[in-house]
Write a structure and sequence with these properties.
Elements: H1 14-34, H2 45-59, H3 65-68, H4 75-103, H5 127-157, H6 160-174, H7 180-196, H8 200-218, H9 221-226
Helix pairs in contact: 1-2, 2-5, 4-8, 5-6, 5-7, 5-8, 6-7, 7-8
Length: 231
């Protein structure tokens, strides 16, 4: 049986909808119109916005960390739940790569030359910052804003099942990338949040998923190609 913490947020949908509208109608178009060529730092702009929104809410005392779900109640249980499922996701990457090699799939037209598509990880003084930003900062900012702030408002206004599915949909749409993998990540994180009343489980799960994504892109291009329809 999962011990659940009570969600104590009292805000409505007006604030979350307004913040998402600014993001979708102002920030996203401005970045893509101002910088039409892909920039390596562009994908950090959006979590920075989410993080700033949360900080503004905290500093203006509109919400508290506890109300968002960032607390240590039942943290061992929540860490085991989100981290345990996340570890399974990470383990699937090398196992799928082993399967591709042993089954001969690497000789098919789909995966032929996949090893040449590997993306080299950043080097130099920014390599650690890029890793920490991708694997830890982005999940933290997204979970605080999209789950702790937006989803909690939905849970207070709609039926839980509908709110959880909307949470997964919003998570996918917030990336402006219609991928099944993003929807499933958001849906699972939303479900963990509703089940536990804490951000620990969804945060641990998303960190694990981002770690798996890092492995896919930089170390297992064959698996990345095979799962391309998801990621």
């Amino acid at each position: 049986m999962i011990n659940r913490s009570e969600l104590k947020g009292t805000w409505g949908l007006k604030g979350p909808v307004g913040a998402l509208t600014v993001y979708a109608c102002v920030l996203f178009p401005a970045i893509h119109l101002g910088f039409p060529t892909a920039r390596p730092w562009a994908h950090f702009i959006y979590p920075v916005y989410f993080g700033l929104m949360v900080l503004i809410l905290i500093l203006t005392r509109s919400v508290t960390w506890r109300q968002l779900g960032l607390h240590l109640e039942h943290w061992k249980q929540n860490l085991l739940l989100g981290g345990g499922i996340g570890v399974l996701v990470i383990q699937m990457v090398p196992l799928l790569d082993l399967f591709i090699g042993s089954s001969g799939l690497d000789q098919t037209d789909l995966l032929a030359g996949a090893d040449r598509r590997v993306s080299e990880p950043p080097e130099g003084p920014f390599s650690l910052a890029a890793y920490v930003g991708t694997v830890f900062f982005i999940p933290l900012a997204q979970q605080l804003f999209l789950t702790g702030y937006v989803l909690q408002a939905l849970l207070g206004k709609t039926k839980p099942v509908l709110a959880v599915y909307l949470g997964g949909l919003i998570f996918m749409l917030a990336h402006f990338d219609f991928q099944l993998g993003l929807f499933l990540l958001g849906l699972t994180a939303s479900g963990f949040y509703f089940m536990t009343g804490s951000l620990v489980a969804p945060l641990a799960f998303q960190i694990a998923c981002h770690s798996a994504g890092w492995l896919l892109i930089h170390h297992h291009p064959r698996v990345f190609t095979l799962l391309g329809f998801l990621f």
